């Protein structure tokens, strides 16, 4: 197989598509999409409105916005209706209200996508975006050296959240994109974040059901405990074939300015095409440089971060 294999590819096939087919088959004929809510992009289902419970206007707007994380990017009005579990009439009205407010963009194909207004709002107070600002120049350097997909992640509940994702294929829209989510036990960054989380976080995760994506996915409590202990000993994680058969990833912990480990730096690679030990050393050096930049608390962002953001926005 040529090119770099993305860590998210198998998930689309085994998760969202299969779950959507099962949902359609299970729904009785003649019922609306609200009776058989579609699968989301991580293999789950869109929240259903309980019978007899009327959602508030705010809840409907939030469901509409959440539809874009479930649908994976640009959506038609019908897709918004299905993913948000809204009637087509309600979806049309709310979509155009959010569009007029500036929260959505409408492209030439009639699809809607979230606008940069949400990033603008979040950037005023979000710690994660400030971390990304400090880390980005070092992640760019790592991406250039390896030519591979590079991640900066954090943990929310039982999921990895991608704060940044630099990859050879910029149009990729899978879950390991910026803002995407994946289960902790299937990625190297997830195993690192589990290893350095509070003990009750690990126990809670082990008590919850876990999905196997390949024959090599660790799913039992014993398997995951063993992986976590290995990460603590080595101070890095390797996950090969856990999410997709021919894809591996390595990750190292990132120490914050307060000395806590709440983030990880990861690299994704195709099995058999590189030495994971080399990638671990490169990721570790990058994490060290990011930690040093956080301690310096520079008032102004690194010029490389400014240049990258301008290029991404089409301003340079």
UniProtKB/TrEMBL annotation:
Query: SMART domains recorded for this chain?
Result: HTH_ICLR (SM00346)
Q: Which residues form the IclR-ED domain?
A: 117-308
Q: Where is this region: Disordered?
A: 22-53
Keywords from UniProt, A to Z, are:
DNA-binding, Transcription, Transcription regulation
InterPro entries, per the entry: GAF-like_dom_sf, HTH_MetabolicPath_Reg, Tscrpt_reg_IclR_C, Tscrpt_reg_IclR_N, WH-like_DNA-bd_sf, WH_DNA-bd_sf
- The superkingdom of the source organism is Bacteria
Q: Which PROSITE patterns match?
A: HTH_ICLR (PS51077), ICLR_ED (PS51078)
Annotated coiled-coil positions are: none
**Which terms under GO biological process does the entry name?**
negative regulation of DNA-templated transcription
Name this polypeptide is given: IclR family transcriptional regulator
**Native source organism of the sequence:** Microbacterium album
- Entry keyword Nucleotide-binding: no
Bias-annotated ranges (Low complexity)? 22-46
């Amino acid at each position: 197989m040529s090119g770099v294999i993305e860590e998210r590819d198998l998930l689309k096939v085994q998760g969202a598509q299969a779950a959507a087919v099962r949902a359609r088959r299970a729904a009785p004929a003649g019922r609306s999409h609200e009776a058989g809510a579609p699968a989301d992009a991580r293999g789950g289902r869109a929240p259903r409105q309980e019978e007899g419970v009327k959602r508030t206007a705010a809840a409907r707007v939030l469901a509409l916005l959440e539809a874009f994380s479930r649908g994976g990017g640009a959506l038609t009005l019908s897709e918004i209706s299905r993913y948000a579990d809204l009637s087509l009439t309600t979806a049309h009205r709310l979509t155009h209200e959010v569009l007029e407010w500036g929260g959505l963009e409408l492209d030439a194909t009639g699809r809607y996508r979230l606008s940069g207004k949400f990033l603008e709002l979040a950037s005023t107070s979000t710690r994660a975006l400030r971390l990304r600002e400090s880390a980005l120049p070092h992640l760019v350097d790592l991406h250039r050296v390896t030519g591979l997909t590079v991640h900066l992640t954090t943990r929310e509940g039982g999921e990895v959240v991608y704060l940044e994702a630099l990859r050879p294929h910029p149009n990729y829209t899978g879950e390991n994109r910026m803002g995407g989510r994946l289960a902790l036990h299937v990625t190297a960054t997830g195993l690192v974040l589990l290893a350095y989380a509070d003990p009750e976080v690990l126990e809670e995760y082990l008590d919850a059901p876990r999905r196997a994506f390949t024959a090599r996915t660790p799913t039992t409590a014993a398997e995951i405990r063993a992986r976590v202990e290995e990460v603590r000993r080595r101070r890095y994680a390797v996950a090969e074939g856990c999410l997709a058969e021919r894809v591996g990833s390595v990750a190292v912990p990132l120490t914050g300015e307060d000395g806590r480990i709440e983030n990880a730096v990861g690299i994704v690679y195709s099995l058999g095409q590189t030495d994971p030990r080399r990638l671990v050393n490169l990721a570790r050096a990058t994490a060290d440089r990011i930690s040093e930049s956080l301690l310096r608390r520079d008032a102004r962002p690194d010029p490389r971060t400014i240049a990258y953001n301008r290029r991404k926005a089409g301003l340079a």
